[in-house]
Specification:
The complex is a heterodimer of chains A (223) and B (140). Chain A has 223 residues and is an alpha/beta fold. Chain A contains 9 helices and 8 strands. Chain B has a single domain, classed as hypothetical protein PF0899 fold (2-Layer Sandwich), CATH 3.30.2320. Chain B is 25% helix and 33% strand. Classes of the chains: A alpha/beta (223), B alpha+beta (140). β1 of chain A pairs antiparallel with β8 of chain B, so a sheet runs across the interface.
């Protein structure tokens, strides 16, 4: 047994620690992942810029995969359930998560939301993150795959300006490519920018209004 | 930036966990004051150091951490390549568009895809505490 250390008045103690603050979220994310796996549910985290088409992409994926998978979605937003209702109209269970002022979902919010779904009734879960190309990448949620969505209407520099989130992407969707010419944006250049940072990311160009490219997203996700 | 604006950045929630953890540690040791806090922050985290410092100042007010010095030590990340066995620092993108060198997932040796090993940590490494008279540490 170690001696009990008594301090004199005014003495300064140097305490060495090893407390990783982000580790707590990673541990919860691993728990979520195991919980989902145990219930036979694949989870896809959809991250991306504000207005890039994350919800439209999920809607189109739900339409495409109906019959093959029983699906549900968690929908993160600061406030409102507008997007959650857009997804719900396709007949899938949607749990809206309002983060208030937080700029991202975290593993704890996802854990809480998962209690609201009967996982026995589903085998594919979409988790739509808050629109943001920075913070969500810091907080893994326990998903099997992570998508990052950007669109040509945000201009030609979305990848080079936010390089870090693309390191975490399994699939990158470049949306609204039908508007590329009008925007003067080269989607191929955006793809090259992604590959420069993350060679293993699969890049797919889509038009989530018409559904062009959705089957390629399904393939890229190996669904 | 005022207090409520600070709430909108994710550094605020991370820093509040740092402050809570340090206060718990200080309580464990019956500390009267927290003098210094040393953090290791990996370069692959998305933490803005200025925002961490700002959030810290806001959060420690009125606690025994008020007036403490926050030292942030930035840590380079490391990667591992399963193709050639390389283990070490990142290959950086040297495109002049990037004003700060951007790490990539290309192996610096063979160019294949690498896995991230370190660089994502935000660790409280060390705290210096002023212990009350007759106080004792219960650390072990």
């Amino acid at each position: 047994m170690k001696d009990v250390v008594k301090a004199e008045k005014g003495e300064i103690f140097d305490i060495e620690l090893d407390i990783d603050i982000l580790e707590a979220n990673r541990r919860l994310a691993t728990e979520n992942k195991e919980f989902l796996k145990k219930n036979g549910v694949k989870a896809i985290d959809v991250m991306g810029a504000i207005g890039s088409g994350k919800t439209s992409l999920i809607e189109k994926l739900v339409q495409n995969l109906k019959g093959k998978y029983r699906m549900a979605a968690l929908k993160g937003d600061l406030t409102t359930t507008i997007d959650a209702e857009l997804i719900a109209r396709h007949g899938v269970t949607v749990v809206p998560i309002n983060t208030g002022k937080e700029c991202h979902l975290d593993a704890n919010l996802v854990k809480k939301a998962l209690r609201r779904i009967n996982l026995k009734n589903i085998d594919l879960l979409f988790i739509e993150n808050v629109g943001n190309l920075i913070c969500p990448a810091e907080f893994p949620l326990g998903s099997d795959k992570r998508i990052v969505v950007i669109s040509v209407t945000e201009g030609p520099y979305m990848v080079v300006k936010h390089p870090f989130i693309f390191m975490d992407a399994d699939v990158v969707v470049i949306n609204k490519v039908d508007l590329a010419k009008a925007m003067g944006v080269d989607a191929k250049k955006l793809e090259k920018d992604v590959k420069a940072i993350n060679p293993k990311a699969k890049v797919v160009a889509t038009n989530c209004r018409s559904g062009d490219g959705i089957t390629s997203v399904v393939e890229a996700l190996e669904l | 930036m005022n207090h409520f604006e600070a709430l909108k950045v994710h550094e605020f929630s991370v820093t509040s966990q740092i402050v809570e953890a340090v206060l718990r540690e200080a309580e464990k040791h019956n500390a009267k004051k927290v003098v210094e806090v040393h953090l290791d922050i990996g370069k692959l985290t998305f933490l803005g150091l200025e925002q961490v410092r700002f959030s810290y100042e806001v959060l420690v007010k009125g606690t025994i951490m008020e007036g403490s010095k926050l030292y942030i030590h930035e840590k380079d990340g490391t990667v591992k390549c399963s193709s050639c066995g390389y283990e070490g620092g990142f290959k950086y993108e040297d495109d002049p568009t990037y004003h700060i060198p951007t790490p990539t997932l290309h192996c610096p040796k063979c160019g294949e895809t690498v896995e991230i090993v370190t660089g994502r940590e935000c660790t409280i490494r060390d705290v210096k505490l002023l212990i009350e008279e007759g106080g004792k540490t219960n650390a072990d």
